[in-house]
C-alpha cells in the first residue's frame, strides 16, 4: 500500500508538507502542490477521506437537498444537479443528493450526523421550514430559490418576472391577444406556497394586465395527463384562445398532445410556449416546443458557489436572479386569423400617458 512517506519521497518534500496538503491544514505553494499531486498520480495514492475529515473537522462534502417525494425529477432538474456537482468538484468538494422532504424532519436527522459541511437547498417554499432547521443546526447553506423573507439568506433564483415578460411580449408582437397561462395547481397542499408557481402566476397576471389582455389562468398539476386535461379545459371554456403558455415541462408535453388529439394544428390553430424547459424535453414533441430555456446550469453553479464561499471564508456571492431565455422551436407562430385587440397594450398605454 502506498503511504504518505512514499509520496513525500517521490515529490522531494517532507511528510508534514504532504499532510498539510491532504488535510488542508496549512497552505503550500502552487509548485509544491503540483509536485505532490503528480507523485500521488504516479504512485496511485488514494486519500483517506475519513482521516482527512478527522484532522480538518471538515468532510469536504456538500449536500443538495431536493424534496423528491413532492417534486418529480425532470431533465431540467438534472441540469441543476450536474452543474452543482461540477462546481463543487472544481473546488475539491464532493456533492451528494439528499432527497429529503419539505417538512425538515429528515433533514434535521441527517444534519445531526455531521455528514456534510453545508447544504444547497432546492425547491424552496415561500415559508420553508427547512430554513429554521438549517439555522438551528448552525450548518452553512445557500438557496436556489427564494423565501418571502430573505434577510441574511444567500440565494440565487430564476428571474420569473423577466421570463414571463419576455414570453408575453414575444406572443404579443406576433399578434396574439387571447392568451392562457396553464400554471401550477396552487390548491394542491404540497404546492400552495411553492415559490416558482406563485411567482410565475403573479408575474403573468401583472404582465397580461399591463398589455390590456384578458387574464386567464388554468391550474394544472405537474403531469402529462394533467396537461392533456388542461388543454381540454382551454378548448371548452376559452375557445377564442390563440396562444398557451405552460409552466410545467411535463404538463407542456400533455398540452401539445391534447390539442393535437382534438384535431388542432400547432402552431396553425394554437401557439404553445413552455415557460421553463430544456432542449432535450422540447424535442419530445412534434413539432418541437418553443420554450423559455431554464437557466439550470447557471443556477446550479451559482448556488453551489454561494455555499462554498461561506465554507472557505470568501466574500459572499451577491443574490442573483437569472431569467430563462427564448429558445425558438416550432410551436409558436402568429395567429391564423387576426383578432381584435383586447386593449391598447402596454406600449400604447405609455404613449397615451405621454
Could you explain the architecture of this structure?
The protein is α/β, with parallel strands linked by helices and 354 residues long. The chain is built from 14 helices and twelve strands. Strands 2-1-3-4-5-11 form a six-stranded parallel beta sheet, covered by helices on one side. A six-stranded mixed beta sheet has the order 7-6-8-9-10-12, sandwiched between helices. It is elongated, with a radius of gyration of 25 Å.
* Proportion of helical residues: 40-55%
Low-confidence stretches: 338-354
- Overall pLDDT metric: 89
What is the N-to-C succession of helices and strands? HHHHEHEHEHEEHEHEHEHEHEHEEH
Structure in a nutshell:
This protein has 354 residues and is an alpha/beta fold. The protein has helices spanning 4-11, 15-23, 30-43, 49-56, 75-90, 105-111, 129-137, 160-173, 195-210, 224-237, 249-261, 279-282, 296-312, 345-353; strands at residues 61-65, 94-98, 118-121, 141-144, 155-158, 179-184, 217-220, 243-246, 271-277, 290-293, 320-322, 325-327. Strands 2-1-3-4-5-11 form a six-stranded parallel β-sheet, covered by helices on one side. Strands 7-6-8-9-10-12 form a six-stranded mixed β-sheet, with helices on both faces.
In terms of topology, how is this protein built?
Blueprint (H helix, E strand, L loop, with lengths): L3 H8 L3 H9 L6 H14 L5 H8 L4 E5 L9 H16 L3 E5 L6 H7 L6 E4 L7 H9 L3 E4 L10 E4 L1 H14 L5 E6 L10 H16 L6 E4 L3 H14 L5 E4 L2 H13 L9 E7 L1 H4 L7 E4 L2 H17 L7 E3 L2 E3 L17 H9 L1
Parallel strand pairs: 1-2, 1-3, 3-4, 4-5, 5-11, 6-7, 6-8, 8-9, 9-10
Antiparallel strand pairs: 10-12
Helix pairs in contact: 1-2, 1-3, 5-13, 6-7, 8-9, 10-11
